[in-house]
């Protein structure tokens, strides 16, 4: 009886602790974490409802700041280029490439949000696809449209669950960039590709 | 036993047919650049440097598969030119027209038009769901058509979904072929219609046969006299073209800005759109 009581008290204390740790919840088990991820409140953070529609600039920055805690843009940039080409880049080259692509990915994500402000987000399910991997399946529902969007999460060591890819109607953002880059790099040098990214980012902003 | 053998043989045949395109381009890729296989070997022998810091890269790499995979694209030259043409057509003609149309007609009316044409495509969805043995979906489609054509007033409104929760199940013949393992073949960009591939291009014909818009008959009391008749165009073609135009402009008016938005992720337009199309089709077939 005594031990049972102890256990109950411990569990209680742990749950309080984990509550205070908030986003880092070191003590919560994975199942409940995943469950939390399917809550509308959580997913809404990815869409930042309403904020985006108003002005660009500052508001966009604020939204991006919020998104950065959930989306690992740096990892996405890395994955977009692929390991083989990434290795060929120098240290400075990596930094620049990541910066350029991250900028692009952010902008593209913001623009996508802009387009879907009147729609509602509906969470369908969370799927555990492997160790430290979860997919959240969402539908963006308009009056007579339904857009399926999947967010792929991995569990990072210090930042918790982070998005590393988004799949819209079966089209993966990372995959699309990967095949584009590998196609371009068959014809052109890596330097030229970076040059291209640089000029297109300048044009876009 | 013989029956089992037969099933197995059929399965093998379908499998080999669907794998054929892959074998083809693998052979082609090797013939074209033997250098690339060398470089692959080269990098793999290299020692990993700071890549392993977070320990995730290797796993992620496997997940996204081989980026170096060669795409068999014999028409790439024509395709990129046609993509440029379609892009120009969209930006300078279709988009402005659709925007004007949106300005004239209220949202509700345009949704009504869209639903009306969508309802008409019932035979296409029904037959292809049935061909893929998706019995429940075919049944849903049948119910949807019955409800929407009557209560929904010729389909301009969608009570089947709003009241009965019956969702549409989009299927076309290309998806049916894909369902039975027919590979897409190489990519073809069609004028005005946009990205397609060999399989989906040939599927356009059966698809059109199931679109009632193409069965509009020439009857003197159907429509008032048409201008184009004097140009030697038959009245039927003219009416079909008009309906198709209306359908297209109406559809585009409801998704203005989406194409431009999509395009922002493109570094080179043609390979990007090709990839988007093939990924999307693969998903639709998987479902």
How are the SSEs ordered, and which strands pair?
The complex is a heterodimer of chains A (205) and B (287).
Chain A lengths: L1 H20 L8 H8 L2 H8 L10 H11 L4 H9 L1 H6 L2 H25 L4 E11 L2 E9 L4 E11 L3 E9 L2 E2 H15 L2 H15 L1
Antiparallel strand pairs in A: 1-2, 2-3, 3-4, 4-5
Chain B lengths: L1 H31 L1 H12 L11 H8 L11 H29 L2 H14 L1 H10 L3 H16 L8 H4 L10 H7 L7 E4 L3 E4 H12 L25 H19 L4 H6 L5 H18 L1
Antiparallel strand pairs in B: 1-2
Helix pairs in contact in B: 4-11, 5-11, 6-7, 9-10, 9-13
Describe it.
The complex is a heterodimer of chains A (205) and B (287). Chain A has helices at 2-21, 30-37, 40-47, 58-68, 73-81, 83-88, 91-115, 173-187, 190-204, and strands at 120-130, 133-141, 146-156, 160-168, 171-172. Chain A has 205 residues and is an alpha+beta fold. A five-stranded antiparallel beta sheet of chain A has the order 1-2-3-4-5. In chain A, helix 5 packs across helix 8 (173-187). The longest helix of chain A has 25 residues, at 91-115. Chain A is globular. In chain B, strands 1-2 form a two-stranded antiparallel sheet. The longest helix of chain B is centred in the N-terminal third of the chain and has 31 residues, at 2-32. Chain B has one domain. Chain B has 287 residues and is an all-alpha fold. Chain B has 13 helices and two strands. Classes of the chains: A alpha+beta (205), B mainly alpha (287).
What's the end-to-end separation of chain B, in Å?
Answer: 32 Å
Rg calc of chain A: 20 Å
User: Whole-number average pLDDT of chain B?
Assistant: 80
**Percentage beta strand of chain A:** 15-25%
- In N-to-C order, the SSE pattern of chain A is HHHHHHHEEEEEHH
Numbering strands along the chain, what is their spatial order in the largest sheet of chain B? 1-2
Number of strands of chain B: 2
Mean pLDDT level of chain A: 78
Tell me the helix content of chain B: 55-70%
Report the structural category of chain B: mainly alpha
Q: What is the general shape of chain A?
A: globular
């Amino acid at each position: 009886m005594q031990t049972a009581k102890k256990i109950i008290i411990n569990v209680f204390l742990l749950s309080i602790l984990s509550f205070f740790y908030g986003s880092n919840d070191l003590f919560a088990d994975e199942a409940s974490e995943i469950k939390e991820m399917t809550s509308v409140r959580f997913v809404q953070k990815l869409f930042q409802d309403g904020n985006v529609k108003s002005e660009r600039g500052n508001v966009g920055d604020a939204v991006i700041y919020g998104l950065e805690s959930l989306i690992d843009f740096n990892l996405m940039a890395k994955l977009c280029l692929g390991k083989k080409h990434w290795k060929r880049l120098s240290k400075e080259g990596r930094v620049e490439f990541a910066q350029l692509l991250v900028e692009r990915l952010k902008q593209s994500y913001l623009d996508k949000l802009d387009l879907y402000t009147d729609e509602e987000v509906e969470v369908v399910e969370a799927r555990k696809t492997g160790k430290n991997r979860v997919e959240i399946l969402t539908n963006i529902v308009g009056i007579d449209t339904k857009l399926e969007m999947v967010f792929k999460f991995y569990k990072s060591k210090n930042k918790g669950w982070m998005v590393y890819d988004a799949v819209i109607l079966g089209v993966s953002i990372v995959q699309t960039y990967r095949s584009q880059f590998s196609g371009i790099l068959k014809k052109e040098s890596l330097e030229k590709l970076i040059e291209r990214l640089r000029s297109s980012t300048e044009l876009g902003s | 036993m013989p029956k089992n053998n037969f099933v197995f043989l059929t399965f093998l045949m379908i499998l080999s047919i669907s794998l054929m395109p892959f074998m083809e381009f693998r052979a082609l890729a090797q013939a074209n650049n033997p250098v690339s296989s060398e470089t692959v070997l080269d990098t793999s022998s290299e020692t990993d440097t700071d890549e392993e810091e977070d320990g995730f890269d290797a796993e992620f790499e496997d997940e996204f598969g081989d980026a170096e995979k060669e795409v068999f694209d014999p028409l790439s030259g024509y395709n990129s030119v046609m993509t440029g043409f379609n892009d120009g057509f969209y930006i300078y003609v279709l988009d402005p027209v659709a925007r004007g149309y949106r300005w004239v007609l209220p949202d509700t009316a345009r949704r009504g038009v869209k639903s009306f044409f969508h309802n008409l495509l019932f035979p296409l969805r029904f037959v292809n769901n049935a061909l893929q043995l998706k019995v429940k979906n075919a049944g849903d489609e049948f119910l949807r058509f019955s409800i929407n054509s009557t209560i929904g007033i010729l389909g301009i409104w969608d009570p089947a979904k709003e009241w009965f929760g019956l969702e549409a199940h989009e299927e076309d013949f290309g998806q049916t072929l894909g369902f039975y393992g027919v590979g897409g073949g190489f990519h073809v960009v069609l004028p005005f219609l946009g990205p397609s591939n060999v399989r989906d291009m040939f599927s356009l014909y059966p698809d059109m046969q199931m679109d009632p818009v193409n069965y509009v008959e020439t009857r003197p009391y159907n429509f008032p006299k048409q201008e184009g008749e004097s140009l030697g165009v038959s009245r039927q073609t003219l009416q079909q073209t008009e309906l198709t135009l209306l359908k297209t402009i109406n559809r585009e008016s409801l998704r203005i800005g989406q194409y431009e938005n999509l395009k922002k992720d493109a570094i080179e337009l043609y390979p990007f759109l090709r990839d988007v199309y093939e990924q999307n089709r693969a998903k639709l077939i998987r479902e």
